[in-house]
Amino acid sequence: WVKSAFMVILILSFGLTVIILVTSVEDCNEFFLKKTPPNITRILGGGKILNQSRYKLICQTLNNTTTFVTLYDTQNKIPVFSAANDNPNMRPSNNSTNYKHQAGDKDYKNTGFSRGHLFPSSYGSTVLKRNSTFTLTNIVPQNKDFNSGSWNKMENCIKCVLNEYCKNNSNIEGFVVIGAQPSNNRLNQIISIPSVLWSTFCCYSQIQNSWLASAHWGNNRNHGPEHLDTKTLGELYTELGIEVFPETQLWKCR
Ligand SMILES: *[C@@H]1O[C@H](CO)[C@@H](O)[C@H](O)[C@H]1NC(C)=O
Ligand SMILES: *[C@@H]1O[C@H](CO)[C@@H](O)[C@H](O)[C@H]1NC(C)=O
Ligand SMILES: *[C@@H]1O[C@H](CO)[C@@H](O)[C@H](O)[C@H]1NC(C)=O
Ligand SMILES: *[C@@H]1O[C@H](CO)[C@@H](O)[C@H](O)[C@H]1NC(C)=O
Ligand SMILES: *[C@@H]1O[C@H](CO)[C@@H](O)[C@H](O)[C@H]1NC(C)=O
Ligand SMILES: *[C@@H]1O[C@H](CO)[C@@H](O)[C@H](O)[C@H]1NC(C)=O
Ligand SMILES: *[C@@H]1O[C@H](CO)[C@@H](O)[C@H](O)[C@H]1NC(C)=O
Ligand SMILES: *[C@@H]1O[C@H](CO)[C@@H](O)[C@H](O)[C@H]1NC(C)=O
After folding, report:
1. Domains of the chain by start residue, with CATH
2. pLDDT digit string (tens) for 194-229?
3. CB of 91 sitting under 6 A from ligand 5
């Protein structure tokens, strides 16, 4: 991990300059289960970013509050994943999410792609947390049908599971890690259009007296299945090479 704090300026295709404070993982590792980040083949392993000039860890911060963490791919200009452990006193998501004032909207016009959040706004337990998800570094070009269809259903479903089952002494607590696999297809020749989006969670459930976890993923295109299958973290590892909660051997989160 990057040891000392420094500033990185990313010029995104949106013509926007985003100033991002990148710090050591210790500053925002509370968002990872057992404070251990995922292992992702060729990107991140054993807590080390393999190419530190390409991949940047971002402690997503709004009004001096860190709300979640993102690993950002500066070459593909999309996040690898966003992770959070705030679970959310999740209220039903309203349509109040307002893209209109976000820079970059024009890049998505008439492209068939929408601005897909990795960490969904609806999972934030406070207005600040919900607002903080609108940063470009949490956004990928997402097929509109996929976004509003099977992906949206899965997001709502997981939100319910977290609300219902991920309780310990009435505190809701769950770890959520959501990511994208880049492809060589680009939006405006610059932003990689992910081929696959994946989503995972893990939590301790007092009601079940056990750890719960699941993985979902789907292709970022039209005519996908109506529902995403619920898979295990082991299947995610086998099929996509992503070990989301590396310490879970200890925690039976599979
Ligand atoms: C995965 O993560 C664990 C814990 O951080 C580490 O010990 C292990 O070496 C990692 N595996 C790979 C392939 O990087
Ligand atoms: C690391 O990333 C930079 C920037 O994307 C790239 O130019 C370089 O070739 C990469 N290094 C390795 C060893 O892949
Ligand atoms: C930002 O933080 C300050 C100080 O903690 C607080 O007074 C203010 O209400 C916060 N603003 C928002 C928009 O959350
Ligand atoms: C954040 O904290 C710094 C230093 O504590 C302070 O200078 C700055 O005004 C704060 N920003 C906001 C938005 O509260
Ligand atoms: C959603 O909208 C309803 C009615 O418009 C409102 O009462 C409720 O507070 C909103 N919920 C959130 C989370 O903003
Ligand atoms: C959300 O948006 C859909 C379609 O735009 C609309 O049918 C629905 O009534 C909206 N829900 C709320 C709570 O505003
Ligand atoms: C959230 O965003 C809305 C709309 O941009 C803004 O009016 C509000 O002050 C923001 N609140 C916080 C806590 O950031
Ligand atoms: C459940 O909550 C208690 C404190 O209320 C904490 O000590 C304990 O570690 C929690 N259990 C798990 C599995 O997180």
Report:
1. 2-86+112-243 (3.40.570)
2. 999 999 999 888 888 888 999 999 999 999 999 999
3. yes
